[in-house]
Amino acid sequence: MSAQVYPYLSFECAKSAIEYYTEVFFATKQYRKQITEAQAEGFGLPVDKLEDTTIHGGFTIAGVDIMCADAIMDAPQTSSRVSILLDFGTDEITEAKNLFDHVAQSQTGRVIFPISKQSFGGGLGQLVDKYGITWMFRIDPDK
To answer: Does the pLDDT of residue 76 top 90, yes or no?
Structure first.
């Protein structure tokens, strides 16, 4: 058996989150499907402003596909337990540092520690975005 694993994130407004990740993380391949009127009625949601809702969406950051949706049934809970590792090869050090620096300079989150050499021989940096998601930027010397 073989399966793919994808981060699946819930947001109060996934449409805004997709816009944020496009601007701050240079996300590509964005897609979004809004909630239909029938779905809204089934979930007990108001049917006005459906154009701002997302039943399923996604984007790609540094080659990592991430899926998302509105947290329809409950308010999304911010958790420091959600981490996404972006694993770069040594030939991508400049790209990794540029992306990390761009996110850090956006001032929409906080840097835990900048990308620096680690005992395992590669590099690692960590930051938390405005949604409370921890992003780990790893430079893998064996990749």
So the answer is: no
Distance CA 17, CA 142 (A): 33
* Domain ranges across the chain: 8-70, 83-140
Question: In the chain, what are the helix, strand and coil shares in percent, each to the nearest 5?
Answer: 25, 35, 40
For residue 72, give the nearest of 42, 95, 43, 38 by alpha carbon: 43
**Is pLDDT of 1 > 70?**
yes
Backbone angles phi, psi at 67, to 5 degrees: -105, 155
Between the CA of residue 52 and those of 37, 46, 76, 78, what are the distances in Å? 12, 12, 16, 21
Residues with Cβ within 8 Å of 81's Cβ and at least 6 positions away in sequence, in order, are none
CATH code of the region 83-140: 3.10.180.10
Is the entire prediction scored with pTM above 0.70? yes
